[in-house]
Fold each of these.
Amino acid sequence: MPLRHSNRRVLGVALSVCVACSALVTTATVLLRPVQQANRLLEKQRHVLAVAGLLEPGKSVEELSRRLDVRLVDLASGGFVELERPERFDERRAARNPALSIALPPERDIAGIKRRAKYARVYLVRNGAGDIETIVLPVHGSGLWSQLYGFLALEADANTVVGLSFYEYAETPGLGGELDNPEWKALWPGKQVYDEEGRPAIRLVRGPVKAWDPQARHQVDALSGATLTTRGIENLLRFWLGPDGFGPFLARIRDGEEDGPHDS
Ligand SMILES: Cc1cc2nc3c(=O)[nH]c(=O)nc-3n(C[C@H](O)[C@H](O)[C@H](O)COP(=O)(O)O)c2cc1C
């Protein structure tokens, strides 16, 4: 009898501990969610500022982010869209929602992403007069082992590269992971992503790129020993610069809608 009594007690105590712990974890998750979201946003903004060359020692990300004009673009038309709560738009979640995304047939899906959201966030850096100085575009696509997420920054001509940087990937360190090597990233500024006809022209070639080659302005050294990651990077860039990506938006900028395109 005493044994059964003590068993019930042990069970009761264990159950109470479980309930208390799960309540604690749930409360912490709910309370910390806004903090985590804010930190994620700050981290993303830090990457945007870094690829645009705007990070300055001694200045906070919040302060520097005031130079960013964050807009949503309708990728099909290339025009800006106004959503009620634009800050709540989540590209990755939207890409899984059939109402907010399109399925890409295999022949057009060169980035290996299957679906893409109808809208995408762009970050415009403006000068004091309000003119666009730099355009930062989110890009993503399949590498060898992982989806590669990054930002491509272009000058106001919507053609010349300011920088390319990946902030999320799981390629092999020393091979595909060299996509984050500062020396490789330094090869990008000044490259031109479109040819004279406005077609995506950027290529990753077995290096080093020959300076005398007329195509050199469109070429960057491949990552050595990482042909498959390299191909993924080239393909995702060509996708996001093409007609299913930011092509229509960038064409509008190049056509002189300097303030950025507007849909009526
Ligand atoms: C353990 C392991 C990890 C690898 N990781 C990568 C990688 O992250 N990216 C990549 O392109 N190739 C990676 N490779 C190499 C590919 O399998 C392939 O050999 C390589 O892309 C060919 O590149 P190369 O023609 O420049 O030598 C890896 C190979 C091994 C054995």
Amino acid sequence: MLRLWGSKPTELALGQEFRLRNAGATGIVGQKLGEGGQGAVYLCDVGGRQLALKWYHPHVIQIDGTLRARIERLISEEPPDKRFLFPIDLATIADRAEFGYVMPVVSGDRRPFSDIQEAGPKRLVLSLETWATVCYEIAESFQNLHTRGLCYQDINFGGFFIDPIRGGVLICDPDNITVEGLLGGVLGARGFMAPEVVRGEAIPSSRTDLYSMAVLFFWALFGWHPLHGRQHAAIGARTAETLTAFYKTLPAFIFDPADDSNRPPGDDPFFVWLGARWAAMPAGLRDLFTRSFTRGIRDPDERVVELEWRAAMARLRDAVARCPACSFEVPLEPAAPGASQPTCSSCGAAVARPIRMTLGRYLVPMLPTRQLFAHHVDGTAAITLRDSVATVDVHPTDEAIVGLRNLTPAPWQGRTGDGKAVVVVPGRTIRIVDGLGIDFGRREGLVAAADQASKSAA
Ligand SMILES: [Zn+2]
């Protein structure tokens, strides 16, 4: 076999030509981007267009008898939404038994989700609002996938790239996406697999995807695994066998309110932070995680579905304040009028809420660039982060003045704090002040002034 210097026998050489089946075009292999268990990914050039080429290892093709049919099916289908990087075309090379596929390239400003496990400066650190947006986007994507009768089968860190500024996601590694009820190429990644799959009692499905998604979301918000408590720390030698045995035993959730046998395994600063982070989360979100890893770990019918995650994450991303004393992130929730200021669950300082609008179960700070979406102003509308219905604008000549602009085609009925009626016609802005009420038609929003900064917060 011809072997180029420095390359392994299965590796593709720089400049190697390959053929695209449907397009009939020729591509040129470029720089290698990375390598995983199934194959390697290269940059490539197809008629001047830069794409990524995934090229499978020969042994993977031998073992996985349905791989080619799965890839061909994905090529023939439109992705469930734009966040999934589906294969575009099948790639082959003359006289080679392996194959691969081309897909869009992930731009360099995206960060791999897996960087959340890194130590030091390489660790992926995002604000809580951004993580909530990431989880929202993933839940919405998987809802679209599952609605199509498909399941992903292998949700883990490796499949996601994140826009660290806006929280957008790209979902790659579609290789195992399969019609519900059929086995793909893998059973999943350790730590993310549903227990019934670990025990060999079920094959991956949309319901096992829901379990894996809950693990991924726990990682996103807490930077830790939901079952890695004292029982995990007590495992002696960490081998494939001992770790698999651990997940088979259905360990307790580290924050299970009814079972403290597997609490976080230490009291170093990270675990102190983890406990405070858990305490700070809105009760409804804590309930979703608790259900996921108590009843939901045993009973697939009890698992949290995408729509529940979307609702919780949409609320979480709306309003996170920072503790004035220690910078800890404190999610804000609607409170009864006159309720006392929230306190930081890390240091106990009072946290001043900004000027904000309460709309049913939503609380949205009225800060520049904030947006309202359909679900904010209409309790019957689907939750969405697209097509805003209102935006918070700064006055063109006085930055201290902010207003809410009506982006809908219908007028809003408003009422100022002193009871004066006002109409906000489409395209116009109303000044945001304490006591302002706006009737959006199906729901009212009420503005409350910012809290006075606490003098004892030092
Ligand atoms: Zn604090």
